[in-house]
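pasting for ref. prot 1 ->
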Amino acid sequence: MKKTIFLLPVAALAACSGGEQQPQRPNIIVILADDLGFGDVSAYGSTTISTPNIDRLAHEGVCFNNGYATSSTSTPSRYALMTGMYPWKNSEAKILPGDAPLIISPQQYTLPKMMQENGYYTGAIGKWHLGMGTGNVNWNERVTPGANEIGFDYSCLIAATNDRVPTVYVENGNVVGLEADDPIEVSYKENFEGEPTALTNPEMLKLEWSHGHNNSIVNGIPRIGFMKGGKNARWVDEDMADYFVGKVRNFIDEHKGSPFFLYYGLHQPHVPRTPNARFVGSTTMGARGDAIVEADWCVGEVLKTLEEAGILENTLVIFTSDNGPVLNDGYKDMAEELAGDHDPKGGLRGGKYSLFDAGTHIPLFAYWKGTIKPTVSNALFCQMDLPASLGKLTGGKVPEGLDSQDLLSVLLGKSEKGRENLVVEAQGKMALRAGDWVMIPPYKGPKRNRTKNELGNLSEYGLFNLTQEPAQQTNLAASEPEMLEKMKTQFFDLTKGYYKADVEEVELK
């Protein structure tokens, strides 16, 4: 597959136009949950879980019924949000290990860079998973390039996911709490001599693994990858939510006097699900349900901080998720057994890793007290459209050639005219959403992976009408041949040069 990097030379930037008139310049906060499904928030009608703070954003802002990520996994959907480009145009935009190099070029257009150049103070706090450094990272010195080099004035992040090493916080490129006499070493190829793993020392585990997570043990939890050293720099999983909420509160308090842009990447409910003790037992669904309640608390703390700072009415808050849900994603935490009547997919089909709708059809809400009126929107809107839309709102310079579309009126609830189509992606395999319809080309591969989520690998073309049947159980390809041909023509035109009929399955490690 080709790798396309959209560069923004100075000349092109000078020629760009973000809007003819000077718009309002609110603070902007994008909150991105991790593996949160369409049915995981009560705003969409779930009666099995309560998420009052997230619901507030939905009920007092724009609640999108057709909000989408570009991808059913983390790294590519985040890439699209940051760059305004389809991730399948960059061959490196795939699930990354914790020591992967930065996959966004410092010369590339990015959403934070646009905000920064437009006078906003920019921050990235929480989960990253877009790579750091240039490869062979030395975690004992400043890691660069990273978030700071693509437009963030301040960053405090975890490099990848909370189930991958290194299990440390990285603030402005430097590992927090690192001691010179205990350097960090990281490998995704082989273990370090004498270091315990889940296979050699299962007695050290407080959380058992089900698949893929049998390497280094940190805080009694087996991880993906091997790590040595940095004992005092390692995070405490149960305290991660409090740690990042503290960083968010500080960021808002320190920059409330001038426009700021904040990307806040929640780690919940991604595995390992380790909610703080005060949230344990909040639901009947075990650690996954409790982690969602913890995430809702995080959102409430953001809103409370904005209110205390007196800037809630001058702040646009956008809440969404990087991809669809998954229950068993590598740990024996009883997520499947305790789910009960809770359907994280919200009646959709598939989930994380899937081409079916639940892989990319995610919660999406836009809240701006006093400016956005409570609205339920059926417009098709993608996270990838945030760069162009926020550029229009703030007067930022948005170059031509992005896949991002200016849908500001849709984001603010003033229009129902959203995208005409969207190419969604799952581990290199692609499908087309257009209007009420979804077309999935045939792909080889298993029907399900080890998570038990359906992958959308069909032996023949799939055509589904989501308005008539959100669950996608009836394939209309044979009965609607004209619509199928129309969708195929659109799809092959949009993906020309990138589509592959046979895509190698990615093993979940």
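and prot 2 ->
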Amino acid sequence: MLKRSAEIKLKEWKENKSHKCLLVRGARQIGKTYLIEYFGKNEYKSCITINFLKNPSYKKIFEGDLDTKTLLMNISLYVTGAELIPGDTLIFLDEIQECPEAITSLKFWNDDKRYDVIASGSMLGIDYKRPSSYPVGAVSYLDMYPLSFFEFLIASNVSEEIIEKIRECFEKLEPVPFAIHDKIMELLRLYNVLGGMPEVLNIFLEENDLRKADKKQRDILNDYRYDIAHYANADIKTKAEKCYFSLPEQLTKDNHKFKYSVVEKGGTSRKYGSSIDWLVGAYLVKPVYNLKGYKLPLKESRDVGNFRLYASDIGLYVSMFDYSIKERLFHPDNYNDFSKGSMYEALIADILTKNGHEELYFRKDEASTFEIEFFMETVDGAVPVEVKSGRSRSKSLDNVLKKEEIPYGYKLINGNVGKCDKKITLPLYMAMFL
């Protein structure tokens, strides 16, 4: 099994005796079902999975009264071998967006407290099939993504000792030993190509075949195309698909700002804005907004009409290009060729998002060359993150670090660790610690 950090969060949820029902959200095929069932079988005497997509007949469990006495009786009737042990049973409602009444029932499960309930949904339908009686206050949430770079290293058999050595270098701002640095950069290039979709990684780890992994990635993209057509409202499904598959063209422009005119000549926010919202709600894309200032909270300083859009998984994004791009990306001599385009930025957006940064920002002055690829909101203030291919000068970062309200900033490069005043230089892979 691929080790997932979300398992730790599931255990923390279970150990909290006053926990609510848990809704695990995320895109399709990122391993939600596998992880929750694994967790249920290892942490409870009984784990009952009710998958509304595989077994549409399970919707009948939630027809009529939704009190737990009725629901428990219906579960025993419809789920063969269901063992309902008060205090030691996990009821897993999978693909819950297919059954709005099951979403409503979470309130009653939460009030009952005898059984732990985890629901999982891709969000490809929850917002558009939301029941009138949504269980506000009865649910806590866990957002789940494809494997992060940190999880990818573990899956690649990088030892905890090596990862802790890299973390120590990060914390002490000391150079990483060359042998370690060289190997982790190689793995970063591989991650840039493979991303973190579990099926893709399993294929590669078992067969060491990039072509077969690429085939699976393209299959997933086709599945997403179908999901958009299946779940999105009729008035936005075609527009959402066009927006999603326009990402390569959007991000390879000199200015990576998302432009509706790239999707369609004459396209406007009025026509396509709801499609972007749907893609964000489906966990397929991550918007990064331009900043107009650095005062916290940064959300108040964002320009909602000026944003960049990144795919939720770097491997799927790269798979929107021709396969030859992957061969070039994986070769270290060619890697710098892509540093001025979208690949580095998309890679760092992937790593930061999977690190748990719910909001990311950038700063670009259209009237000058000033540009900072990312800003993170931290307890210290607004922290800039500049992405470079090497030790070239970073005029934009140097200028923004002169501002008193900016505590420090990071410059991510192919090279090793360094520090000069408020500027901290790190290898690209150390973004996993930010």
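The chain has two domains: 6-143, 149-433.
The radius of gyration is 23 Å.
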